[in-house]
Amino acid sequence: MQHPSVLICAGEASGDLHGANLVKEMKRLLPSVYFFGIGGKEMKDNGVEEIADLTDKAYVGFVEGFVPYLSIARVFFRIVKVAKMRKPTAAILIDFPEFNMRLAKRLHRLSVPVIYYIVPQVWAWRKHRVGILRDYVDLAIPVLPLEEPFLRRYGVNAHFLGHPLRDSIVVTERESALKGKRPLIALLPGSRKREIDKLMPPMNRAAQIIRRYVDCDFAIAKAKSVSYELIRRYSDLPIVEGVYELYRDADAALISSGTATLEATLNLLPFVSVYRVSPLTYHLLRMLINVRTYSLTNIIAGKPVVKELLQWRATPERMATAVIQLLDSEKRRSTIEEMKNVVRKIGPPGAVRRIATTICEFLRRL
Q1: Do 13 and 55 form a contact (C-beta atoms < 8 A)?
Q2: Are residues 100 and 117 in the same domain?
Q3: Exposed, middle or buried: residue 178 (CB in 10 Å: 0-12, 13-18, 19+)?
Q4: DSSP 3-state of 268
């Protein structure tokens, strides 16, 4: 295997970033490897030949996902056709389960070895999908510590090597007492328009309530995929783009459920996790989901560490009350200590290097 070619597929902005970091590390270990596939600007900037870009078509929920379905389907059949023509050495599928699980089946039929990086959370919902990972994926790389034993129990070749976020976030100590400091409270309403539309209004109202009781500052984290105009539609609070600096400087936060909650945990930032979807999506999730908690922090900890406010519970009043509680020294201390335990479970830095090494060794054996 002198010049391996790898089909790589990431359908969301977060997957694009994880894919770019993986490509960079794999090229260092195996300079002759060539990448092509589906990604965004980050992967393209790192030398991936772009067949299509789906990073602007990600969605939240079942009902909300209907609109972009047709354009995503066109890309699916296009990438299958390209795979038939090029016959890649292997394929790396990153997250994006509704697309990539189907793609894994097609690639398996084409005799293309499949590596799945950031596997679907089959332990949480739609558990039957574990059979797809077992039958059509040659190497599964989960990024949560609880996933490897679960997947192996069902016959999946799974290897947990750490979470890639550990490479981009340096865990530093955080004071539990504010010591007279004017608190800074971060608002992270998400990276998609539908999330902003549903969460920014109650978050902004919660900020107004908090200011009645606490002399504090606020800052809204703006994702690259979100325009200033969209946020300004709902709030005139200060907006910042440097989310990692905000994690470091803030004293508490309201965060849309998702990867941002794990980023906040790695920064030892006490936060409240909030989420709202359409009523139909919510009821479908209630029927399908297998876990009682939805924050990654609580799932990894195996117990409640952060407050969760889902759907009708995500009111401005409840948000405000929960954030004010996080400014209490004792509550902050206990939350930060529990977050440290979560960080230890996630593992040390160097995850991307370990993952790239494992994949390169897999390619060399083909």
Answers
A1: yes
A2: yes
A3: middle
A4: coil
Residues 51 and 83 grouped into a single domain: yes
CB-based contact 130:122 (threshold 8 Å) = yes
Number of domains in the chain: 2
Q: Specify burial of residue 173 (Cβ count, 10 A radius: 0-12, 13-18, 19+).
A: exposed
| Residues 153 and 245 grouped into a single domain | no
The count of C-alpha atoms lying within 13 angstroms of the C-alpha of 194, restricted to the half-sphere facing its C-beta, is 16
59 secondary structure, DSSP code: -
Q: What is the pLDDT of residues 74-121, one digit of tens each?
A: 999 999 999 999 999 999 999 999 899 999 999 999 999 999 999 998
Place of tokens 């955080």: 174
Tokens found for residue 224: 């690259």
Q: Edge-to-edge strands of the sheet including 271-275?
A: 239-240, 217-221, 184-188, 252-256, 271-275, 307-310
pTM, full prediction: 0.87
Instruction: Based on the fold, state whether residues 252 and 309 are members of the same structural domain.
Output: yes
- CATH number of the CATH domain containing 239: 3.40.50.2000
| 355 and 324 within one domain | no
User: Phi and psi dihedrals of 116, rounded to 5?
Assistant: -110, 115
- Asked if 76 and 135 sit in the same domain, the reply is yes
Give the C-alpha distances (Å, rounded to integers) separating 116 from 10, 83, 165, 272, 352.
11, 16, 17, 31, 14
240 and 320 in a single domain? The answer is: yes
Phi then psi for 262, rounded to 5 degrees? -70, -40
Closest CA to 94 of 17, 19, 37, 23: 19
DSSP β-bridge partners for residue 253:
186, 271
- Do residues 309 and 274 touch, judged by C-beta distance below 8 A? yes
Vertex 238, ends 233 and 243: CA angle to 5°?
Answer: 105
- pLDDT tens-digit readout, 139-189: 999 999 999 999 999 999 999 999 999 998 888 778 766 777 899 999 999
Distance CA 20, CA 360 (A): 15
Containing structural domain, residue 155? 5-162+350-364
